[in-house]
Amino acid sequence: MLRKLIATGALIAAMTAPALADPIEGAWKTQAGDNAMISSCGSSFCIKLTSGEYSGKSIGKMKADGNGKYVGSITKPSNGKTYSGSGTLSGGKLKMTGCVLKVFCESQTWNKL
Prior knowledge:
eight-stranded antiparallel barrel; globular; 52% strand; 1 helix; 8 strands; signal; DUF2147; 13% helix; Lipocalin; mainly beta
């Protein structure tokens, strides 16, 4: 009986685990007015534009760094250059930053859709 209860509990936990998405995952409205989708890709989160002039273009990859912070790379779609990137999540807002040499940085605030 106990063995059956443990097996049932493990099955329920395995079925619900994929439903627990990281808060960064989902659809976002960029500061420029385009839509972007952030989704899990392995142990990272991949960022792809889903509307606008650069729709379909992958523009970044980040890993969770704890407490709503993410680090990785960001690609500027207009020139194709990739920069050191970071993201800070606060409620339904995501501040995305790309930097060259950690000195010259550009930031945008995205809103969750």
